Amino acid sequence: MTGVTPFWNPQRPSPMPSHRYRNVFERVDVPLRERSWPDNRFTAAPLWVPVDLRDGNQALAEPMDTARKTKMFDLFVRMGYKEIEVAYPSASRTDFDFVRSLAARQAAGDLPEDVAISVFTPARPELIERTFESVAGMSNVLVHLYTATAPAWRDLVLRGSRADVKALVADAAELVAKLADRRGPDAGSMRFEFSPEVFNLTEPDYVLEVCDRVTEIWDACADRPVVHNLPATVEVATPNIYADQIEYMSRNLARREHVILSVHPHNDRGTGVACAELAVLAGAQRVEGCLFGNGERTGNVDLVTLGLNLHAQGVDPMVDFSDIDAVKAVVEECNRIEVHPRHPYGGELVYTAFSGTHQDAISKGMIHHAARAAELGVEASQAPWDVPYLPIDPADVGRSYEGVIRVNSQSGKGGMAYLLRTHYGIDLPKDFQPVFSKVVQRATDEHGREMEPKDLWELFRATYLAPGEDGAWTLAESAFTEPEPGEHRVAAVLVRADGTKAEVAGSGNGPLSALTAALAEAGVPIEVADYTQQAVTSGVDAAAACYLRCRAGGREVWGVGLDTSVLTATVRAALSAVNQMFD
Ligand SMILES: CC(=O)SCCNC(=O)CCNC(=O)[C@H](O)C(C)(C)COP(=O)(O)OP(=O)(O)OC[C@H]1O[C@@H](n2cnc3c(N)ncnc32)[C@H](O)[C@@H]1OP(=O)(O)O
Ligand SMILES: CC(C)C(=O)C(=O)O
Ligand SMILES: [Mg+2]
Q: How far apart are CA 48 and CA 118, in angstroms?
């Protein structure tokens, strides 16, 4: 991209001082000229590690107490996470005590043996020692050591040269190894993780050197592989750059077969998920993140989105999201932060269409899906999913179809027809849908609000059913007979709009034509252009629905009747039309 504005682009320079920031290429040059990640594909889930109880927790205005931490930890276990970062034990008594509470639970056999407990520490001897105290007696522990390695952090925060920072890390790694040895042969198993904080802004040759030194100190081997976790602590570049950085490390790390390559993207540019996904394609085997993306500033990468992105591509995420709302409720309660209604997969509105064309497509897609499941002889929940505009079946994550279509002024006929069909068992004839849709549009334009299914039903009832049931023109008495096969007669008392009565009779080749003949005799002639009768299977208290497209005096109206008997539904539909025509 050049800075020259082409003739077709009328945009002008903004008043913002963009020149103050450096392009990432000036800061990190990854010596990778050919990459394999663009051609790689997902075939299996990486190891997911939730860091909500440490990284997410450190970003909360009110950090979690033991009760909230326990609730979230138990959720992770239920969901199937096998490695959980639980605390920064040297940071606070709360964090330390929480680890001790897990130690007690582990001793009591109340923690699954295959769940590793990770604790986080900076490269400061007294804090490392405190961290080891917190996990005394525990097994299946991961000690996670970190130090920033990027130039600005070396110069401004740690105030040391490349060699100084490497020595700081090496000393800390040695202390970790020593304290682990001191636990003795009977102590439970312990593994190690190292994070060069701000990896993504660190010179590739230097970060490789630091990581390799740690690998050596911790003597990475088949029995005790080392985790190297490469964070995008502050996201600064497009995801392809991060992928290049990860592929470079994956290709060049020493004892690669004994290194578990992990990533830890944050979301400052809003591309944390893309970074994590490309990093996995580039060789990462493990991903740290938080549920719904809580974390410092714009958050850690979102493990819900990552997991369900895999699910949506046919790859098992190996973590249970089948009750997403239960997961969300715990996360919201523990973090005291609400999940946005548009949040991928878990937001309240993400399986909902308000717009007409989307609703039409979803409605058709759902009918097709049900038919396909029947054809294959499988449950709808097991049939291949191809419903337009819904990347996954909401039922996979425990959502009902209730909110999939919601009607407002942006909606069309498909949406309201879907709601009447699914909530009230009423399947409006195709030609009738645009007619009622106009009525709905008028109402939504007027009040500007959403129409819930019950509002829609009320509008339908008031517009079409009420005129046939208690409109101004009524049939006081009626007797339908069939003296000969195919010859139908009706004798009735019609009460006119002004309250006067007329005795009328009519005959025809069916009850409806007999009735229209009688109505014509009474001065309310309607010509039936279309007749649709339908069984109602659920929703309303009626077995039959009748729809009549009627004409009179150059006008056309639809009469609708519902009843347990087909004949009464037909009579009501005719009166519905009469009352709309002759009001
Ligand atoms: C990217 C990340 O998420 S990193 C994790 C960040 N998380 C947190 O900070 C939450 C918990 N932290 C805390 O509660 C506190 O910071 C504590 C208890 C750990 C330490 O508190 P304090 O001793 O008061 O130190 P403070 O927080 O000011 O830390 C700054 C000092 O640590 C040093 N430091 C920071 N990170 C590291 C590290 N990874 N390794 C070694 N030293 C470090 C700094 O250079 C600075 O040293 P200086 O005082 O010599 O200049
Ligand atoms: C893994 C640690 C150091 C971290 O949270 C980060 O760098 O974002
Ligand atoms: Mg982080």
A: 13
Q: Rounded CA gap, 405 and 453, in Å?
A: 10
Per-residue pLDDT for 436 more than 80?
yes
The pLDDT tens digits of the residues spanning 125-141 come to 999 999 999 999 999 99
Split at pLDDT 50, 70, 90, the class of 2 is low
pLDDT at 539 over 90: no
Annotated binding site for Mg(2+): 55, 264, 266, 300
DSSP state string for 437-496: HHHHHHHHHHH-S-B-HHHHHHHHIIIIIHHHHHSSSEEEEEEEEEEETTEEEEEEEEEP
Ligand 2 center–CA 120 separation, angstroms: 10
* Nearest ligand to residue 295 Cα: 3
pLDDT of residue 583: 73
d(C-alpha 273, C-alpha 94), whole Å: 31
Q: Which of 34, 70, 25 is nearest to 52 (CA)?
A: 70
564 pLDDT band, cuts 50/70/90, is very high
Protein residue whose Cα sits closest to atom 6 of ligand 2? 233
pTM of the model: 0.91
Give the distance (Å) from ligand 2 centre to CA of residue 147.
9
Of 318 and 188, the structure prediction assigns the larger pLDDT to 318
Angle among Cα 20, 25, 28 to the nearest 5 degrees reads 105
| Ligand 1 lined by 233 (C-beta under 6 Å) | yes
Ligand with an atom nearest the CA of residue 123: 1
Residues with CB under 6 A from ligand 2: 55, 146, 195, 197, 229, 231, 233, 264, 266
Tokens of residue 441, six digits: 């549009």
CA of 157 to the centre of ligand 1 (A): 10
- Distance from the CA of 300 to the center of ligand 3, in angstroms? 6
